[in-house]
Amino acid sequence: MNTSALAIETRGLCKRFGDVRANDEINLQVSSGTVHGIVGENGAGKSTLLKMLFGFYEPNTGDILVNGEHVSFMSPADAMARGVGMVHQHFMLVEPFTVLENIILGAEGSKNLEESKGRAREALLELEEKFGFDLPLDEPVENLAVGVRQRAEILKALYKGAEILILDEPTAVLTPQECEQLFALVKLLKEQGKTVLFVTHKLHEIMAVTDEVTVIRAGKIVALRKTSETSSEELAELMVGAKVVRAVAREKHADDAARLILENISCENNQGQRALKNVSLEVRDGEVLGIAGVAGNGQTELLESITGLRSLSGGSIRFCGAEVSSQSKMTDAITLRRMGMAHVAEDRLKTGVVESMPATENIILGYQREPDFVSRGILKLKDIAAKAAEYFESQDVRPRNPNLNIGSFSGGNQQKIVIAREIARDPQLMVIGQPTRGVDIGAVTKIHDQITELRNAGKALLVVSADLDELLAISDRIAVMCEGEITGMLAVEDADEQTLGLMMAGQSQAMHTAVEAN
Amino acid sequence: MSVADNKLPWWADSILLPVLNLLAAFLVSGLVIWGLGEDPYIALSYIVEGAFGFEEGISYTFYYATNFVFTGLAVSLAFHAGHFNIGGEGQAMLGGLGLTLAVFMIGDVSPLLSVFFAIVGAALFGAAWAYIPAYLQAKRGSHIVITTIMFNFIASALLAYFLVGPLQRPGGQMPESADFPESASLMGIHELLAAVGISFEEGPMNVSLLIALACAVGVWFLLWRTRFGYELRVVGQNPNAARFGGISVSRMTIVAMMISGALAGMMGLNELLGEQHRLLGNFTLGYGFVGIAVAFMGRNHPVGIVLAALLFGALYQGGAELAFEMPTITRDLIVMIQGLVILFAGAMEHMFRKPVTMLFARFAERKAV
């Protein structure tokens, strides 16, 4: 490996969105002619980094160097002119157009379409031979399988002269067989002298194809490793962060009654694929059950199933001793709240609040039919305002102005408002997704303390988090989810970052091999 | 303060920008008039004089404005629920049909009863006509913009069928119904004023203006003071959050569109019950479409809608006067001026937003330094 020549280098690259530092002092070094992996959890800042490398975003500060030269990309066209090509997670292809038409799009080179097509065809056949492609150039893209479309995207980038190829989550949509083909292609590209930047959160892929790997967490680079000198366990640890600092001591609790029982539940995701496969869990009063796992392994669907937002295709859910959901039955969110279930949504801005409405209107969301906020269909504005002021005071929300749109508060203050809303009615069970995602450090401790207080008061809590530190700090038991199944359950005393990392990474690798074997 | 970043004070958003848009429309219109060899200033004074200069003119201005209040409210209510109802025109036609059927069915009774039935008939038919596209959107995913446009054409054909068929005036040749029963009529405002001793010239402005204003207040109250309105706005701004809050998005889509259709349908009260006293094939005259521009210009707020409706009412009435006074300015040119106002206020609503925002930002910066 030639470590002296760097295909891509960034120096102190920073990108802020409002108060959030999406990328903080990123010093990336990608050696020329290698396959370089970038791993990190969803939201770690991978996409932001790529978008800067490909000219979608301009960095706030810092430099990008391509082949040792300073560059400043104003648009993807600038990046392509420097030989940087990108294959997006969601393909940028015009479906009714043929492969050939898609490839020459933007690089026709002539006003006469037939002429440019003819010229491109020759060049493409040459490229195809060199890289072992066999694409149906005259087939409309919409008739092609996903894996073939991806190869068309790669060929498009090569045709436009890419020397450095960025693959963003390239396997997210591929079957195991297509993945193998992709890996083979990546190796071939490397042999032909191209540099490949392989971005993913699946660790076995990193182990399979890369030479070096950079780990990003919370907008920062936390490690650069030679792939041959690391393991998926180490990478998993680095990705989620594994320093255990237990802030608040938990009181000892006798085993209390099960508040929530999931029996063999299954459900489908929005694409109609099975997202949960026979999941069984129970959450007892006075305990925090943490759910760990790499994002996208069914956690979202689990939260939605429990909180009355997604119907089951099998199994049943019992809450407070009554069946609330099964294949033929679904209890709506408002009834569940009245039964004592509170829900802090995983994706705050997408589901938990209405960004463009003032905080006062957001504090009644989900409780807008309760008699203290509404009487005979009319909103009790004074009572709502008083309640909002009370929440702001008790949670120390800043700025102390409930009439501002909730979108103009920082993530931490938004979350404080949401938590105040959800704990106000003394719920028996709290279902919390990502309690501290996008929350500033100061607010994290306060939120963790509140979770522990609720637990000590005998409430049942189910917490899904991508942050292992967090789960280790607040949970009594931790269940690990992988590919829609519970792959492990540990008491927190027995759990440590290595074991959990192994369950998250090792199990998913085992699953992967099993799928391929079929 | 970082909170105010990239945001305009409310007055700049709801007053300054509409005024700028309006000025731009007038400027371009003025250039065209100037190009035709007429004096734009005099043309403008004819418009203002024609719309507000004498009692009958004022009556017409408010008469047209009444239509726009109904259709503007209809568009904005659907918009708050996240839908673009382009079908105000068709819903108004069906409202007119429902109104006509209702008044003929109830016959010549006490005026109050007759008007009550007329309102119910208009609202019900308007709502029913909006229900179909809403149902298709909520349950089948057909886009409401497309279906409501289609339904305008169907409504027009349906109305034509009724007016050359079952509802045609006996022995008549025109696509129009027989005259309504005597009792099916709304009092003119001049009659109302005369009753309290104020003399006002006779004109088409009638009590439906008050009904329209009551609807504006009602819409405001519904949207910002009731639980239903709250849920409606949540659905419009974030359907995911609505589901999270236990609100049925498909049900809300249907109900909001039906209220929207009912409001558009009530436009017939002004045109038919107030003025024509019979059903005419083309009585909607595009007022349903102008409602879109009115709603946008009024920033989807009832107060803004009433003001924007008044502006468009004045343009309709003043424009007619202008065409009468200046022979070189034809009827078509008036339509063009109205079109320009719609273009600048509706379609290019945000043209001045960016420069004004930048101006404010620079000003704020200088203040901070």
Describe this structure in words.
The complex is a heterodimer of chains A (518) and B (369). Chain A is of the alpha/beta class and 518 residues long. Chain A has two domains: 6-240, Rossmann fold (3-Layer(aba) Sandwich); 258-517, Rossmann fold (3-Layer(aba) Sandwich). Helix content of chain A is 35%, strand content 26%. Chain A has 17 helices and 24 strands. A six-stranded mixed β-sheet of chain A has the order 7-8-9-4-10-11, sandwiched between helices. In chain A, helix 8 crosses helix 17, helix 13 packs across helix 14 (411-423) and helix 14 packs parallel to helix 15 (441-456). The radius of gyration of chain A is 25 Å and the shape is elongated. Chain A starts with 5 loop residues before the first strand and ends with a helix. The model of chain A is unreliable at 508-518 (pLDDT under 50). Chain B is mainly alpha-helical and 369 residues long. Chain B has a domain at 61-309: ABC transporter involved in vitamin B12 uptake, BtuC. Chain B is built from 16 helices and no strands. In chain B, helix 2 crosses helix 3 (55-80), helix 4 (88-106) packs across helix 12 (267-276) and helix 5 (111-140) packs antiparallel against helix 12.
- How would you classify the helix and strand content of chain B by structural class? mainly alpha
User: Largest interface, per-chain counts?
Assistant: A-B, 34 and 18 residues
- What fraction of the residues of chain A are assigned to beta strands by DSSP? 25-35%
Number of helices of chain A: 17
Along the chain, the helix and strand elements of chain B come as HHHHHHHHHHHHHHHH
Number of domains of chain A: 2
- What is the mean predicted local confidence, pLDDT of chain A? 86
Strand order, sheet with most strands of chain A:
7-8-9-4-10-11
- What fraction strand of chain B? under 5%
**CATH hierarchy, class of the largest domain in chain A:** Alpha Beta
Number of separate strands of chain A: 24
* Radius of gyration of chain A using CA atoms only: 25 Å
